[in-house]
């Protein structure tokens, strides 16, 4: 593992000469690498990659994303309160350093969230002391560049004794809100309105392929707003969120919520019941965001298929 204190260019793609002699931009599309997560008692080993992979952010709109494991958002990591995490980040992006900042842990950032250089693997150990729904992200400078290009995901730390409402829950899903801007454009990340605001990485999957539930099911969503810039107002049309645990901590309980405010990097566990068959839309109730893609469906049927 190497520590980088170096300055580096914002530009991502390198220029090469084609056979015709014309300059062209070299594009990367590294195939996704699923995370390796293994448990021995309360020792959990997590191996992830930093890599560059093309993702589809809207139908027919590719984006050369900087990713964890080749997806945006990165894979959901789920551990238990009190676990010791042995985390390894393999940086297979040939062009720049990346890192891992886990909001779920107490750690000195200059020791445990440090840059891993191209081709290197960094290993770090932390304890997941606090329960919750947390963001993880690349913390390499400029952080906005790495966030705007896709380097974030959700880590769930299950409470030691569970949530009081665990026995009532029939189905659970994860939703990560985030923004897409002009590709790899730092100025756009800094100054412009997002082109898309999306759930789980794009603006079509959760409407084309609704989440499913049966009539009467109690649903739990683990929700995270990864930003990088916008606040989210998470709402489910046609129900009330009977129980909300802000940031996923059972101590932060609210009841009867119509909308949950999620700051950039804020999370929540939200629970509700769907009492009639039909399609229920999840949105950010900041409707400019919903109109840019921050919407998805839960389809409720008698069978729940
Ligand atoms: Cu990065």
From TrEMBL:
Its cofactor is Cu(+); Cu(2+). Residues 11-29 have a biased composition (Polar residues). Cu cation 1 binds at residues 98, 103, 137, 146, 151, 285. Residues 51-161, 181-298 form the Plastocyanin-like domain. GO terms for molecular function: copper ion binding; nitrite reductase (NO-forming) activity. SUPFAM superfamilies: Cupredoxins. It holds the Pfam family Cu-oxidase_2. Its EC number is 1.7.2.1. CDD domains: CuRO_1_CuNIR (cd11020), CuRO_2_CuNIR (cd04208). It catalyses: nitric oxide + Fe(III)-[cytochrome c] + H2O = Fe(II)-[cytochrome c] + nitrite + 2 H(+). One of its GO terms (biological process) is denitrification pathway. Keywords: Copper, Metal-binding, Oxidoreductase, Repeat. Cu cation 2 binds at residue 138. Residues 1-37 are annotated as: Disordered. The keyword Metal-binding applies. Homotrimer. Belongs to the multicopper oxidase family. This is Copper-containing nitrite reductase. It comes from Paenibacillus zeisoli.
């Amino acid at each position: 593992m190497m520590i980088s204190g170096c300055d580096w260019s914002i530009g991502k793609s390198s220029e090469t000469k084609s056979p015709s002699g014309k300059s062209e931009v070299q594009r990367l599309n590294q195939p996704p690498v699923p995370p390796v997560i293994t448990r021995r008692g309360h020792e959990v080993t997590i191996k992830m990659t930093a890599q560059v992979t093309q993702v589809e952010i809207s139908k027919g709109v590719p984006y050369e994303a900087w990713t964890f494991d080749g997806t945006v958002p990165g894979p959901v990591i789920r551990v238990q309160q009190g676990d010791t995490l042995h985390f390894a980040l393999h940086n297979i992006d040939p062009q720049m350093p990346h890192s891992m900042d886990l909001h779920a842990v107490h750690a000195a950032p200059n020791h445990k969230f440090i840059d891993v250089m191209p081709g290197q693997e960094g290993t770090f150990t932390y304890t997941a002391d606090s329960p919750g729904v947390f963001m993880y992200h690349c913390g390499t400078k400029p952080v906005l560049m790495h966030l705007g290009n896709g380097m974030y995901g959700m880590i769930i730390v299950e409470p030691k004794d569970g949530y009081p409402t665990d026995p009532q829950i029939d189905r659970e899903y994860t939703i990560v809100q985030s923004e897409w801007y002009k590709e790899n454009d730092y100025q756009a990340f800094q100054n412009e309105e997002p082109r898309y605001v999306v759930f789980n990485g794009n603006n079509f999957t959760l409407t084309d392929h609704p989440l499913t539930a049966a009539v009467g099911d109690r649903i739990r969503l683990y929700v995270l707003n990864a930003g990088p810039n916008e606040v989210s107002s998470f709402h489910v049309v046609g129900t009330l969120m009977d129980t909300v645990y802000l940031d996923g901590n059972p101590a932060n309980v609210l009841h009867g919520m119509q909308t949950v405010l999620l700051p950039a990097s804020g999370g929540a566990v939200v629970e509700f019941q769907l009492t009639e068959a039909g399609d229920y839309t999840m949105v950010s109730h900041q409707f400019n965001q919903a109109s840019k893609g921050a919407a998805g469906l839960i389809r409720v049927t008698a069978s729940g298929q």
